[in-house]
Amino acid sequence: MEVGTTVKRWLFSIALLIALVPESAQATRRVVGEEYSSIKAAIAAATAGDTILITAGHYSEGPIHVKKRLTILGQGNPVVDGAGQTEVFVIEADSVVIRKIVVQRAGVSFMQDNAGIRLEKVQHCVVDSCILLDNFFGIYAAESAFCIIQNNTLIAHSVREAVSGNGIHLWYCKGMLIRNNRIRGHRDGIYFEFVQSSLIEHNLSEDNLRYGLHFMFSDSCQYRWNTFRRNGAGVAVMYTRRVLMERNVFEYNWGSSSYGLLLKEISDSHIRFNRFIRNSEGIHSEGSSRIEIDSNLFQQNGWAMIVMANSEDLYIHHNSFIGNSFDVSTNSRHNFNRFAYNFWDQYKGYDLDRDGIGDVPYHPVRLFSLLVQQNPPLLILLRSFLIDLLEIAEQVFPVLTPETLVDQYPLLHEVEF
Amino acid sequence: MSNTLKIAKYQFFNVLRTRWVFVVFALFFFLTAALFYFGESEAKVLVSLLNVTLIFLPLLSVLFGVFYVYNSTSFIELMLTQPIYRSELYGGMWLGIVTPFVGSFVLGVLLPFLVFGSWMGYAGAFGTLFIVGTALILIFLSLGMMFAIFAEERTVGMSLALLLWLVLTVVYDAVVLYLATVFRDYPLEQPLIAAMFLNPVDLGRVALLLQLDVSALMGYTGAVFREFFGTSLGISLALVALLLWVSIPVFVGLKRFAHRDF
């Protein structure tokens, strides 16, 4: 429900922006590099509605505070440099548009979150087609609403988590649209905390130190068509209700505590049409409830899904599990979740009535995955003949694996989507 | 040396005349071809081949090694009347048995793979499979020959061979599993790596795991294994271990063969 209204809200904000464009075109145009030698001087001279055009060049200017409704355009990739000391752009007025500017080297600070472009308590702003290089934080939005951050490229070369910031960082925002950005090498690619009703789509977040997407206390958001690749710890979605995650790709998130998607205390959400490929753990669910997980592809993960016993009312259906070392693992013999109509490539049953559904239930939790969970080094016995024999014995008389964690209607063919 | 080669050549054709080599070839050829034919992915084909390579290939090899020596007793007696060294005879027999076996295994997998499979991304895994399979054939054929040389009684040789196969494929892992469970509170990574080196079947399995289950192995303990077996040091050590596993039974068998009264 609420997600629908979100979409309407940002559509409305786009319409509003389009309505504003002709007005700004009539306003004064101030060219930095010709009339003005510095961006600050141009901004000081400008009145609301003006356009500041920054021509090619290198501008080493400290924090540039934008307190008027301006359109700031770059021409020929002007570089605005924080020289590793200060913040670069601080937007403090509504409806500011900033486009096609290279912003670099916002300084690392332990006192404040210096950012390449900071949106501070504003509405209806646009950050578009900017390139942010080696900033502490890339684009930082605090207590803002209905802004669009799109088509940006953010690259940093962080080495240590403690001295690196996030790519796109949102704090106490609502109705934001984060679209078509490429983020690499930050601490967290995209960071959401206390954000509501926002949309993250078509982004690529890769090679970040910690999470590709770090998402907390952010109800009623959706993210779709994103790719999260080779991030230190994958993607974490925590303490949130009503999230829609669809058509994302989670891949190559490798490591001991690296997850394709970590769900911690998530409820009333929907995860569908995603692809989880070659992650240490595809989905790791902890304390989550009432989530529908359907039509996803889990391929060649170490563990496709780990569902801790404190998760309940997860409905997992119509997913394809292909070539995973382990399909499902858990930490208890009790199960409060439902698996049905999934395709499991390790399923060995038959289908006599030819309705495409296997006649024998499938138990996705293997004895060996429980053994490995209790004693990780045992992993070295994976695919041993002995383990296969134990597996068969366990399937005939289940003693350790959860009997109720079962797919009663395993599909015989991969789910197409 | 030329004597060795002459004997090897004779043995080679003799082995081809027994049906064993064709069984190995047919097993791998039809299995691989059928898996590809029914539309399985390269990864799935590899997993199926892994089980056959690690379990049936050693069994066939060790049994054939035993059988062949027992069936060649009269040939050996005849050859020993000729002016050749016993080491030449033994070496020739070994070469003549090993080559057709390795050839039929490699061809059995390679032909269907070339027709149906794609090299993209899986060349490393199939390469590892060839190396592991070849090593297991060499090891278990040598062990089989060694048993046959030691035990004059046919049933004893056979039982020893079967027992060894059972120990290396199942019992050994059961002991490792048991010990690892008992000593679970201790750091187990290094001892487990050492344990894998003492069993060629496990060593081969781990080498294949590193190709097939990278995602699972990238977890903490997995990373320890991967860092060891993934480095050139680990690979060289593994190859040395496999070489020792071949050369020790060959050497011991030869020692006994040189002194045995036929």
Q: Could you list some keywords that capture this structure?
A:
heterodimer; A: 417 residues; mainly beta; Pectate Lyase C-like; 25-stranded parallel beta sheet; 13-stranded parallel beta sheet; elongated; B: 262 residues; mainly alpha; 0% strand; globular
Biggest interface and which pair forms it? Answer: A-B, 34 and 40 residues
Mean pLDDT of chain B: 87
What is the rounded distance between the termini of chain B?
23 Å
Poorly predicted spans of chain B? none
Give the overall pLDDT of chain A as a whole number: 90
Which assembly state applies to the chains in this document? heterodimer
Spatial extent as radius of gyration of chain A? 25 Å
* SSE order of chain B, one letter for each helix or strand: HHHHHHHHHHHH
User: Can you name the CATH architecture of the domain at 1-232 in chain A?
Assistant: 3 Solenoid
First-residue to last-residue Cα separation of chain A = 24 Å
Query: Major sheet of chain B: size, sense and barrel closure?
Result: none
CATH topology of the domain at 1-232 in chain A: Pectate Lyase C-like
Q: Structural class per helix/strand content of chain B? A: mainly alpha
SS element count, helices of chain A: 4
β-sheet strand percentage of chain B: under 5%
Specify Rg of chain B, calculated over alpha carbons: 20 Å
Number of structural units classed as domains of chain B = 1
